[in-house]
Known about the structure:
Largest interface: A-B, 48 and 101 residues
Distance between the termini of chain A: 70 Å
Radius of gyration of chain A: 23 Å
Number of strands of chain A: 0
Order of helices and strands of chain A: HH
Strand content of chain B: over 45%
Mean pLDDT of chain B: 91
Distance between the termini of chain B: 45 Å
Helix content of chain A: 40-55%
Number of helices of chain A: 2
Largest sheet of chain A: none
Low-confidence stretches of chain A: 66-74
Number of helices of chain B: 2
Oligomer: heterodimer
Strand order of the largest sheet of chain B: 1-2-3-4-5-6-7-8-9-12-13-14-15-16-17-18
Number of strands of chain B: 18
Amino acid sequence: xxxxxxxxxxxxxxxAGCAPIQPWVKPYEREHFADPIMSFxxxxxxxxxxxxxxxxxxxSRGATGGVGGGCGCN
Amino acid sequence: MQLRRFSQWAKVLAALGVVVxxxxxxxxxxxxxxxxxxxxxxxxxxxxxxxxxxxxKVGDSLSFSASYYEDLISSxxxxxxxxxxxxxxxxxxxxxxxxxxHGKTIYTAGYIHSKEPDYDSNTAYYSxxxxxxxxxxxxxxxxxxxxxxxxxxxxxxxxxxxxPTFHERADHRGYSxxxxxxxxxxxxxxxxxxxxxxxxxxxxxxxxxxxxxxxKPSGFSLAPQVTPNTRTSTAASxxxxxxxxxxxxxxxxxxxYTDTWGINGNTFQVSYTQPWRHFIFxxxxxxxxxxxxxxxxxxxxxxxxxxxxxxxxxxxxxHSISLGFGAAYEFHVPYAxxxxxxxxxFHFNHLMINYxxxxxxxxxxxxxxxxxxxxxxxxTDPLYKLDANIFQLFVSxxx
Lengths: 74, 399
């Protein structure tokens, strides 16, 4: 019995894998992401600079979500 | 002339930021121009200068960007005062990139050049960004390669020039993967992973280690530091942004960092964004914590104590807190109909760094501009602290 259930689940899972993923947030529900306040880097020139300040003074580097770094000096 | 310089590769990461930003992959960035003035003041160092970033689309598929950045440095840091005299210098950096949109994919390629009197670096990079799953997900792969030349300045007859006997090189490679995922109609998550490898001369030619020396009144002497010629680091971060019901946004960020030099770092940041009429206000709190590199010591027991020795503050154990505030004012430019939007922006950060194992050696020994303080020894010098104020003022226009 349990084998049959597992087989059914596997078959269903395989079929689900063939179906395209449906966006669970529809395009008309994404208006908030067009708002500048939802940008991770609203002002690249500023974010680049402040990450530059940190990067110069810390041992860590990279993976700053897009705006890391800076002169390693001073 | 005594300098600094922990990781020169870091400088190019700044300008590369835009590249690895997980953007919406089927839309090119807006046409815009920014002109910024920056000022850093802390720990005896003042760094200021301009920065310019311009981005412009050509047709429906191409977008070009050009950037310029300048540091005017006046340094009398604790490292400088310990073994040399204050100095002034300028660093200039230029960058250029192009984005090509094809379907739901953006291809980016660019080049950055940085030049200062005793260091120049060249970096080439490219990335591919793909939007998928109904545009809920954007995946970005990035690769960069850097070639640096390291020189050492010396003073000859009062004139600072490159030491003709010193020329080193450093190569860098970086690999990044970013995923931007819309979670709900109000929440978006960015995941970033980056591995960086360095090879070559990875230290400052100026900074020195100190070791116990009973023959000296101060109790210590200085010697050149030696770091490994290779370094590999990995970093991973997660940034979550949430849209609040009354048009505001809150962001939580975390990054974990580790490298082959033994440094582990943790970064936490929360920020809040609140629009009000023609303004947008930002507030942030950032906490950073790291342990020391394996070969770091504030005071070595003797000369040539180990193969690798360093006393760079950036390799020490410390934690830091940074408070940030920003305000942007959107305004209309009369008679300039080609400008769609414009804003005047002011950002301020206060940075506080508390070192756990880096002591102020200017107590037990006289430094440039100060005398030794009686009663202090290399072991009892007070732990060093750094407070810095950071200002940014910039104008942005969208056209």
